Amino acid sequence: MQQNFFRLGAINLASCWEPMIHPAIRSLSFPPVPQVDCNNCRMVNAHLFPPHVKCCSRMPDLPNFLIGSLLVNGPETHGKQVVIDWISDRRTDPLYALVPPQRRQEESGLHSFKEWPVCPMYQDGGCSIYAHRPYVCMGYHCFFPDPPELYAFWNSLSTLLALISVCASQYLALQCGLVSENFRDAWGAFPDDETAWPNGQQMDPQLHQQLWDSLDEPKAFYQHCYQYILDHQDTILDELDQFRREQLVRFMGFEGHPDPQRAEKIKQQPKDPSPQGPDPEDHKRYMKELILGPDKHRWTFREIEGHILYYYQRVFQPNTPSLPA
Ligand code: SF4
Ligand code: SF4
Q1: How many CB atoms within 10 Å of residue 108?
Q2: Where residue 143 falls among pLDDT bands split at 50, 70, 90?
Q3: Which of 99-103, 168-172, 286-290 tops mean pLDDT?
Q4: For the chain, which has fewer Cβ within 10 Å, the N-terminal or C-terminal residue?
Q5: What total of structural domains would you count in the chain?
Q6: Is this model's pTM higher than 0.90 or not?
Q7: Is the C-beta atom of 41 inside 6 A of ligand 2?
């Protein structure tokens, strides 16, 4: 990880992503989609997004390891200063820089897209933290040209990046000293936005203090989350995979759907993905939902990677003899 950027097919990411992405996915060579051009945005041309902001109208949560990477490696841009100000302004917890309720209300209360507010990271027509942008900004927010599997490929790739982002932010926070019970208790004592964010923009000082109790101060903590990835480049992929597997088995218990067969399948999955078509229902979702966040599915890393390889072959290697039926 010598450079600050890592190239995954057609997209640039901060270099800390590289060891968290399976080599089978890292090795894919996929080009940009020629018809999807941010300088000639299809969604703006179709009057679905406003020209002043295009798809950069929603402020996304920024995970701890990207904040750390931005602080250590990020260029001195407007966006980096915004994040530094958020940290001073009690806008961050050990997992994320959070979107405060006042901003969420502004976003949800608008009727015409012409009023959409610009993401605070947007500057001079582009993203000022581009390599460090959150997962929700990494895939294209567009309608795609045919074949439909092209959309499914990008959607499953975005779904993988979303899963890595969410699992890594949780796992790294735990590795850097967060006690999950303390985190849950702190938020649980402030059950609604009004009490947790009294002025709509900053956390209650007591909540903030409880969230950070016994941890490093926020900037150092985020840098440690990032540093953990650097220090565990050879193992972080397996660590996150194991974390997800254990999490999924635990979820079955919490959610009241114990399924010993599924639990065994999760535990026994091989360490390398193989191309596999998603179930028909999942295939339909891949064809119509943009980026499935981990709250919307219960897949393992290997399963999503298998879906990516499956769609990749269908789009980019249609004559591959081993293509699954
Ligand atoms: S990613 Fe956003 S700006 Fe780029 S083409 Fe798609 S909708 Fe437009
Ligand atoms: S973080 Fe960057 S890419 Fe994402 S919405 Fe904001 S300006 Fe756009």
Answers
A1: 8
A2: confident
A3: 168-172
A4: C
A5: 1
A6: yes
A7: no
